User: Which sequence fits this backbone?
């Protein structure tokens, strides 16, 4: 289940140097996970779980602003939204959905 968090972290930052995590397991299934991945230039904080309210979110925070994607893994037919913040300015970019029902 945590593969999405790890995958997008590696896509953006490369290969991690080290990692730490803790989880909750029920009958051998990871139902909650929280962790950190240390990369040469940044640290990724990740969490996921089957025993939590449904949500998808990716946020990259830097010294001058942030970029967030509310639904990075499942845009479906609705547009995907990317929010770029720098100082007090916020720009929203909509990308077309990936699944068409027409």
Assistant:
């Amino acid at each position: 289940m945590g593969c999405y968090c790890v995958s997008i972290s590696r896509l953006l930052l490369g290969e991690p140097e080290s990692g730490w995590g803790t989880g909750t397991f029920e009958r051998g299934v990871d139902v909650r996970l929280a962790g950190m991945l240390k990369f040469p230039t940044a640290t990724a904080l990740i969490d996921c779980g089957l025993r939590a309210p449904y949500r998808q979110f990716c946020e990259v925070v830097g010294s001058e602003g942030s970029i967030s994607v509310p639904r990075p893994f499942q845009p479906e037919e609705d547009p995907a939204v990317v929010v770029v913040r720098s100082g007090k300015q916020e720009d929203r970019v909509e990308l077309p959905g990936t699944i068409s029902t027409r």
